[in-house]
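Before going further, learn to read the protein records used in this course. A complete example follows; check for yourself that the lines match position by position.
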Amino acid sequence: MANPGYGKRSAPDQLRRDKNDFTHLPPREAAIAAYIDRLPEGADISVKTLAKTLPYGQCALRTALNRLQNAGHLRRGRERLDSEGTGPRWITRSWFSRTARDDGWWASFARGDAPEPSPKPTRTRAHTLLAALGRKTPALSLSAADCAALAPLLTDWFARGASDDHILRALTDGLPTPIHHPAALLRRRLTDKLPPEPVHIPHRRMLECANCGLLGRPEALPGGMCRACRGEHRRQPDSPLPAPAVQAHARQIRAAMSARRRGQAPVT
């Protein structure tokens, strides 16, 4: 396992595991991909660590991981973690996807558009939360029918990122005394205190070139490699000079050398 907070991270929304998941890859890459796929979250998938377990050298593993990246199964980069007090910090990440993804999908994932695995805003979750109110605040005890009627109002709260604790505080802070109709009070609070739509936030993730480690926007790293490493920006060699030009340069050089020996200024 890698240090806490690092190591393998599984991409969201993958298809169920199947025996044909990696048949499109060469045998070596398919074997390595299948091995990584079965590792737990947080496992160290660096070249050095894999070389200690798999029957391949570091050079072969580095090549294989680059091919997995080019095939859409792997991306390496950095992710921003926000914490109170210390502010944001960037940590190294390696994301693996059993389901091959194209560059567009990885770009959306880097922007934070691809949803992370999280509790879905289901009726069961909402019903459970509402039923728990009575245990914390007896004056807000609800019947099963009340919970069923109010549960749909929680859908927008979940969709806007509200946690269970956030919702509980919104429903229980500053309650009037006495409470005659708890269901009516909660309906009003669920409507009036609905949090705003999430605002746009900066990219949470940055991807890096598998070859040189250059950080960049996902669209600048097609196949997980920068364009320079893909050979798209290599300088073209200069065209050779035609023979007459070469001969003219040679004559000028000889004339300059002769003039210098005679102590004369060279003729240009």
Remarks:
- The beta strands are 8-10, 74-81, 89-96, 205-208, 215-216.
- The first strand starts at residue 8 and ends at 10.
- The chain has three domains: 8-111, 123-192, 240-268.
- Residues 145 and 220 are 54 Å apart (CA to CA).
